[in-house]
Queue: 2 jobs
Job 1
Amino acid sequence: MATRTNPLQFVQQVRAEIAKVVWPTRRETALTTVMVLIMATLTAIFFFFVDFVIRQGLEGVLRLFG
């Protein structure tokens, strides 16, 4: 069973944990944002071509039997 801590101890523990957080720099944030945008664009292009190939194949099969 978990032991209860009083509110003062809880606040002190939260502050101690927050002090351990390392926030990214503005440059790191910008680089990560650019990388995400590039990967999202590449993924969109990839799925566009996959959709195109599947659509062309399906239309070919339907033309053949339709």
Note: Residues 42-66 form one domain.
Job 2
Amino acid sequence: MSELTRITAPDGVFPAAQYSHVVMGTGRFVAIAGQLALDEDGKLVGEGDAVAQARQVFANLGRCLAAAGATFDDVVKLTFFVTDMAHMPAIREARAAHIPDDRLPAASALQVASLVRPEFLMEIEAFAVVST
């Protein structure tokens, strides 16, 4: 695990409520491609269900991080792509199961017209820094 410094309210910037404005660390950089709500067989989990899809996406992120020798503690940035901002509470709930409030990474959320298939409600990518 990398030693990371999180700054939620840099001087002159509004305080962040659900993310950190700045996350710094030294070590090996890991980029995780946008994850979708697919199980290991490529089948959709939770059609029309944002909570189920968010849980599956975070499970997939966790598996990808583990494959890179990282954990959610090493995540410095998350990007949420959602088809409807109404899905953000489900994403925050799933994130909270893996990342405590005192370790929130930097984050961005974008509402998009669609994802690669219409049944996907969200896609989430992650960046991590693992100490070397």
Note: The beta strands are 4-7, 22-25, 28-35, 75-82, 106-111, 122-130.
